[in-house]
Amino acid sequence: MTVPGIAPGVMAGEPNKEDVMDYVKPYGVVDSMLAGGALKLSLPPRQLVLRGMLAGAYLGIGTSMAVTVAVETGYWILGSLLFPCGLALAILLGAEIITGSFALLPVAVADGQKNADLRHVAANMGWVFLGNLLGSVLYAGLFAIALTTAGDAQVNAVGAKLIAVAEAKTNYYASHGTAGLLAAFTKGMLCNWMVSLAVVAAYMSSSFSGKILAIWGPTLLFFSQGFEHAVVNMFLMPVGMLLGANISVSTWWLWNQIPVTLGNLVGGMLFTGLAIYAAHHKSAPAATPPLPATVPAAQPGTVRA
Predict the structure, then answer these.
(1) Roughly what angle, to the nearest 10 degrees, separates helices 118-148 and 98-111?
(2) Do residues 98 and 125 make contact, with C-beta atoms less than 8 angstroms apart?
(3) Enclosing domain of residue 124
(4) Crossing angle between the packed helical segments 258-266 and 98-111, to the nearest 10 degrees
(5) Has residue 288 been placed in a domain?
(6) What is the tally of structural domains in the chain?
(7) Which ranges of the chain would DSSP assign to H, the alpha helix?
(8) Global pTM?
(9) In angstroms, rounded to a whole number, what is the distance separating the alpha carbons of residues 294 and 62?
(10) Is the separation of the CB atoms in 277 and 116 below 8 Å?
(11) Could you say which residues of the chain have pLDDT below 70?
(12) Which CATH number goes with the domain that contains 72?
């Protein structure tokens, strides 16, 4: 009997086969993580830097849009809902984000992949970090020009908010000394638990819509709570400084960029990459010892030694 609204051959209460096929189980996600780490380690420095620059620009665009929406509406959560556009672009277009590398490359090391030694991994991360920084700073300069009519107009409300955010992410931590450094590190760790989870969650679906949804959730969780992301801050601090924020380059790096990057590394590596790998990686089954050969039954009248 055909049930209205259910495809022929599918019983009521059973999932549609297309929906089941779209979902990738955790074991498959781990396989994709390993393949992703191998791909990253195979890329030459030129591509790592270029892809890193694109990712830095995409995240900068997502951040400037989120701040603009938050200022114009008065609700930070509305800007947070739109910020994942930038990260989704970076992930789906194969750009290189250092926070994603913090999760995937340690898994490649743990799995013993080719070229997954500490020297290659550190060099790979270094090139991606450089690319992210260049792309973010480039977009910060372009956005500052657009926002101030090349310096000929006063800083508007969006610019004032960017200045306030940049100062809060540096001078505030500096005013608290060691406690401020610990807070920046911890916020970086919590941030990349979510951001690297968004990178990995994209492997959970084989469809475009499924990947978008998987990326959106964890990214919203990080941005809406004000956690610290190294690449986002590569845009926020330079654009704030260009617009007139009371921040020096040394303040930016000492009180934000360095502790946040280290926190991102720990969060992505421990809470996402290695945790998921340890929980769901399929180990090779132990070899089954061969069964002893069957001894034929003794024939009547036969005496065994």
Answers:
(1) 170
(2) yes
(3) 23-280
(4) 40
(5) no
(6) 1
(7) 17-22, 26-42, 45-73, 76-82, 84-92, 98-111, 118-148, 157-168, 171-175, 177-201, 208-224, 230-243, 249-252, 258-266, 275-280
(8) 0.87
(9) 70
(10) no
(11) 1-21, 283-305
(12) 1.20.1080.10
